[in-house]
């Protein structure tokens, strides 16, 4: 069984008979490049199911997708979702779509369509899956690709709200995932660990869009943490040194590290450790960047060492 | 766990650090409109799992998506897939991606990215889900929208290869879904019913693209059969009469109808009954259309009855 998504935003043409839509390309681009991404929320969905709260995962998948294409300098155009469950639960779908809508509106992205698939026998009980597809646009000569990053450039970090959408397998193993485990309020926290774990993925579009012309490269810290995501943004012949202690690691990471006795290097390979996006800039632009983004911190620098390594000191 | 899709086609720019890609918009469009769709394969996946054959569902999701946006007159640009399973099975993923690639290449669509999500606890045993997302393009004044359809217009039908991607819940209930049930070769068939059920969704792009300027409207016969899909393509004030007997209903539908004692109207509401796409054309264009598409049949006509009804006689 399939349901068309009811939410359409202005700018979207008509409503065809399938679960997508038509979107007129905005004018003013000389060589428009479309940037697209597909992703899922992963096992953060399990936390949402136990907590019975489903709007934040809707925000997660949109914000994650927006941040992914932002690493190329792209502005979001439209988004489609795929929701699959065993038996249609309209209230649950409405909650998810509420989160999708909120996050799309925040960045001016059309929620152009989506599909809700009812697949008994594949999804059990209250289980469901949620994936998202985004398309954005960037002028060809404004693509952010990291090619001009050179030794001496600064690495800025923008704060995350928590785990975002990665590391939930390890987090669930360490913290548990029963209603009792997730309702626990640990010392130093003002809410349950379940609520802490559901904090929505931060969207960096509005923060970075105004300063994008001074950005040389971006790394969205998702699955694989600092270790896997930063090298993909670097050109040959350089590496990056990250100076821990230049930002406050949120308590949830310290809790997982301590309870699970996780090695520090493993923490940086699995989690964002409080930094959701790293921004590579020329040293001469650091002060204007920090003035425009007061939440940013200089967390490291680009070094002349070959091999696109990430050294965490 | 996430895996980047390895297959990129020429025309795609670079490979960013996320599971999507960059696609430079083709030139020559005055007012380019992007047409997108998101869909899943549904419980046809269950048949694929039992049969241990996974390339055809890859073709299914691409062809289904291509046909969806084709109903607006759009040509495919690029496709992304979402594959989710409990534990990564590389051979299974390779089979699916082989099908995706084959179908994309067939219509010149870039397989630009995708995600493989490993979600233990959500997907059990060999279960997996597969969804797809397509973006195509059409010049704004060439959008096919059915608005000029009028009484007396002809309804052409293009043959399907079988169930395509809809009606599998009913088919599985009637035919069974054990290995024994699916390996059965029914009288009059030259292969097992499992193989018959896995026949890939037909892509109509190459057939319809050359004659698109004479097409007034299109209905892709998917979930909801004739009954739900045709009305969405019609303007106010008309209806459609379909003349059964003008085409050969494939034996698989007769088998399901007979074994399941399914009422004829239910068959037309659930299945495509051998017609995967209906094409609305002016009567003066019928002979040239049939010459260009020898596999097409005139299966009905547009009537002056209000209500966008579908009468099957």
UniProtKB/TrEMBL annotation, chains A, B:
It holds the Pfam family AIRS. Residues 150-311 form the PurM-like C-terminal domain. It catalyses: 2-formamido-N(1)-(5-O-phospho-beta-D-ribosyl)acetamidine + ATP = 5-amino-1-(5-phospho-beta-D-ribosyl)imidazole + ADP + phosphate + H(+). Its EC number is 6.3.3.1. Keywords: ATP-binding, Cytoplasm, Ligase, Nucleotide-binding, Purine biosynthesis. Residues 34-138 form the PurM-like N-terminal domain. This is Phosphoribosylformylglycinamidine cyclo-ligase. It comes from Candidatus Dehalogenimonas loeffleri.
């Amino acid at each position: 069984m399939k349901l068309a998504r009811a939410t359409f935003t202005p700018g979207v043409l008509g409503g065809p008979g399938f679960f997508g839509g038509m979107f007129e390309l905005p004018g003013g681009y000389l060589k428009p490049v479309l940037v697209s991404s597909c992703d899922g929320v992963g096992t953060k969905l399990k936390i949402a199911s136990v907590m019975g709260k489903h709007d934040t995962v809707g925000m997660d998948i949109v914000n994650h997708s927006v941040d992914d294409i932002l690493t190329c300098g792209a502005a979001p155009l439209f988004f489609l979702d795929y929701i699959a469950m065993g038996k249609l639960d309209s209230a649950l779908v409405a909650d998810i779509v509420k989160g999708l809508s909120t996050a799309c509106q925040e960045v001016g992205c059309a929620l152009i369509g989506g599909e809700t698939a009812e697949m008994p026998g594949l999804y059990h009980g209250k289980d469901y899956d949620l994936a998202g597809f985004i398309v954005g646009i960037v002028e060809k000569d404004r693509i952010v690709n990291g090619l001009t990053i050179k030794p001496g450039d600064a690495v800025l970090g923008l704060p995350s709200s928590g785990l975002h959408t990665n590391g939930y397998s390890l987090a669930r193993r360490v913290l548990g995932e029963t209603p009792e485990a997730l309702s626990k309020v640990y010392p130093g926290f003002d809410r349950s660990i379940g609520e802490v774990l559901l904090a929505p993925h931060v969207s960096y579009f509005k923060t970075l869009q105004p300063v994008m012309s001074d950005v040389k490269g971006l790394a969205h810290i998702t699955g694989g943490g600092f270790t896997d995501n930063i090298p993909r943004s670097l050109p040959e012949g350089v590496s990056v040194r990250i100076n821990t202690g230049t930002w406050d690691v949120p308590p949830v990471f310290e809790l997982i590290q301590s309870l699970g006795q996780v090695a520090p290097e493993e923490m940086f390979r699995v989690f964002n450790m409080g930094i959701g996006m790293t921004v590579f800039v020329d040293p001469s632009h650091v002060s204007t960047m920090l003035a425009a983004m007061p939440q940013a911190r200089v967390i490291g620098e680009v070094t002349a060492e070959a091999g696109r390594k990430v050294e965490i000191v």
